[in-house]
Amino acid sequence: MGWLLEARDITKSFSGIRVLNGVSLTVQSGEVHALVGENGAGKSTLMKILAGLHAPDSGALLLDGQPVHFRNAHAALKAGIAMISQELMPFPHLTVAENVFMGQEPVSSFGWINRPALKRQTEELLAQLGVSLSPASRMRDLRVSEMQTVEILKALAHRAKLIIMDEPTSALSDREAEALFRILQDLRQRGTAVIYISHKLEEVFRLADRVTVLRDGGLVATQDLADTTPEMLITLMVGRSLNPRSLPTPQRTGQPSLSVCGLGKTGRFENVSFDVHPGEILGIAGLMGAGRTDVLNAIYGLHPADAGEIRVEDHPVTVAKPRDALRAGIGLVSEDRKQFGFVPWLGVKQNMTLASLRRWCHLGRIDHDAENRAVEDQVQAFGIRSAGNDQPVVRLSGGNQQKVVLARSLLAEPKILLLDEPTRGIDIAAKAEVHELIARLAETGKAIVLVSSELPELLSLSHRLLVLSEGRLTAELDPQRTSQEEILKFAMPR
What we know:
Blueprint: E1 5-14, E2 17-27, E3 32-36, H1 43-50, E4 58-63, E5 66-68, H2 73-79, E6 81-84, H3 96-100, H4 115-129, H5 144-157, E7 162-166, H6 174-190, E8 193-197, H7 201-207, E9 210-215, E10 218-224, H8 230-238, E11 258-265, E12 269-276, E13 281-285, H9 292-300, E14 307-312, E15 315-317, H10 322-327, E16 330-333, H11 337-341, H12 348-353, E17 361-362, E18 365-366, H13 368-382, H14 398-411, E19 416-420, H15 428-443, E20 447-451, H16 455-461, E21 464-469, E22 472-477, H17 484-491
Parallel strand pairs: 3-8, 3-9, 6-7, 7-8, 13-20, 13-21, 16-19, 19-20
Antiparallel strand pairs: 1-2, 1-4, 4-5, 9-10, 11-12, 11-14, 14-15, 17-18, 21-22
Helix pairs in contact: 13-14
């Protein structure tokens, strides 16, 4: 069989640390080939080598059977390999057409950019993908999904044979992701190959023909998805079987830990009511923009509600700011840990105790010995892996960053924990560990409200499930007796 791309025994080291160890990969024309593995497995390094951003220390790359050596990303793109990174970097003040043909604009006989030809060629590419987008739109005015479409158009304008996509749906709504999946199907039919990197196994099994698994810089396996189950793939990625915990059903007797009644915020959500009992995990599903995060932010006082009532253990509380929520026993893990969850260049210890320093203050001084013991207890309980408790949190993996954020919330000793997308952007093994932590917290009697865009996560962790659509509650479902299709039916705008 003739391969479009073949990478043979690729090795790469940085500062004496080997990050790729004899990795091989083959890709066919018209194939969607998934690349999976934990953070640090070597996926990004391998893709940067294919895209000309790094040179391998040893090994060989073959394109259409011919050896290639890329000096830079431009050389790889010229050869037909394009990479769409997770962090999109368009030219924001330029138009769609100018971004698509950057560096290869059609010119007139006088050497000026031929604007009519530029517009026409962009329209032709848009029509090929069935995308409704104006060539004259400024990139700064586009949604993330539309920016990704422009990156795909740019690859097609360069006649790319292979497009590498790194976590392309991480910032997309469900509807935007569906549009991307339709474009991927069109690319496959055109004979364009795609290497698809994702932590979302449901996407891998839906889209990919084959999958390659990396672990600790080495190749574990390449196999057909038709012969693979999600459980098999997880075991290949982490090197062990991860058995999900069976959640005990909490007794919904006595007073709830948290009750909200008729909660509303103008323009965001209205008339939201629910309660959560000790030991219960209440899931909230909905499309992006449905109001899920707004509800949690209102309960925590980040953006206070302007209607309704919040009660903690049947006592009314006024939450005008996060300090009020903390005093009432409410903790929040924000959906954007990098912006709101931690201070990047502070250490593990400083981040972990930031919200609860008063616990270790005596006569105006911090008892650092007691603080260190509390932090070490949390590090052990959460299995946080770092170079030490003074290591800046920004230097940790995504999973360990999320554990620090969770530990910080728990050091404030909340009765109620609001979790907004607690596993976003972390790998499969870290996700399983966070799921285990959430289940363990519920078992200790914490009342948990869980917001997630991943329906399998909600179905596996929640005792009850609410659905929001356009700021209104549309359903309460039993996770054991419902399906993803039914959830989406109630989540769709009406």
